[in-house]
Amino acid sequence: MGKAKKKPTVKKPASAVKHETSKKPEIKISNKKEKSITNFNFKPTLILAVITAAITLLLVLAQHVAEIYAEDENILTGKLKEKCAELMGEGEFEVILDWEEAGYSAARPKEILKLIIKDEKDIAFQVTAKGFNENGLNILVVMNNDGSVKTLAVIENKDTKGIGDKVENESFLNSFIGKSAEVRIIKGTPRSDSEIAAVTTATKSSKGVANAVNTAIEAYQMIFGE
Amino acid sequence: MNYLSVFTKGIIKENPVFFMLLGMCPILALTSAAQNAVGMGIATMFVLTCSNIIISLLKKVIPAQVRLPCYIVIIAGFVTFVTLFLKAFIPPLYNELGIFLSLITVNCIILGRAEAFASKNNVFASALDGLGMGLGFTLALFIIGSIREILGAGTWFGIVLFQEQISPMMVFILPAGGFFTLGVVIAVINRLLKKRPHNISCDNCPVKGMCKRGE
Description:
The structure holds two protein chains of two kinds.
Chain A: H1 14-34, H2 43-69, H3 78-88, E1 93-96, E2 112-118, E3 122-129, E4 137-143, E5 149-157, H4 170-174, E6 184-186, E7 195-197, H5 203-224
Parallel strand pairs in A: 6-7
Antiparallel strand pairs in A: 1-2, 2-3, 3-4, 4-5
Chain B: H1 3-8, H2 24-29, H3 34-57, H4 67-89, H5 91-97, H6 99-102, H7 108-118, H8 123-153, E1 155-156, E2 159-160, H9 175-192
Antiparallel strand pairs in B: 1-2
């Protein structure tokens, strides 16, 4: 690759410049004519509008078809179903979404996705909580008949992989067993029953799990407590 | 026109990720697990092929002045269709891809092929081009995804390979690791296939005059 050549500048003779300026008035007039509205070409805009309308129509149809197959919220599916069977045992499961309709004294808080009742006596809640990410945690909390936590499992964890998923560690989850009142996450060693040690480097996710458990405990008190 | 070469060029010779450097966003964001990466690749391939077909069918109808909005509307239509389909039939994949499913609309590969190929060629060739480029994109996602998952989490498609024996290097499933992996893979593949960098002129470069190449 050699050095870039500099183009020699050509000086226009004076006569040529005059020639150009005499042309200008003519060009100005023709520009004004083109700008009149009757000469505006509507065709491209019309075609764009037709294509957009056609696609929107097809999508509305597709949406209707998809809704027929959408997941039925009233049944247990996938990992939630698996964990319910694992932690509560086999039996008849019932999902309650509308609490007031079912006769409970409170409405379902928005953090609780499902109230799950097995064999009409065992209670569990599916709770979402903010971990590191908004709605990063989706947890199944199984309750004892006295309002204390029986066991829990993480259904979905959208927090940072490799860091936030450390809260799925069994020993951390087991530290919530038996709690019947609000718990707090602290760093270091817990000094009382209401304190639980955070998972190191995953404090926000740990707090999310604690929030989910607290929501479940509170909800149990609201509906079934004295 | 050699239809076979139209199809195969997208897979290796003109791979959109490794040689044309398109579609960088999903490559970096969705390759922490090989399974999600391949799922994304197949969704993109579907949208790319379908939009190529429709745009090729409508190439005489769409005027040049509004071609880009028309292409985007068509592409967005197919992306929405794929989103509805996945939400209804494959919810786990829908949850994993999340917002990146909607972002397929602005994946440069799809708009790029629409502008460069589908708007100028017949329907069959455009379909093959879409399939080929889509496969090339999926292949790139698969390679990067596998490397990142194996080195970063010790698993491959969810199958645990090693956890206790060798501790996996977490950095590979974090964003920084994505950049490292992508850079190294692009360099290695370009070297193996003996690709030379494009001869781009200096005219539009903002640092022209300051760098050595201009001398």
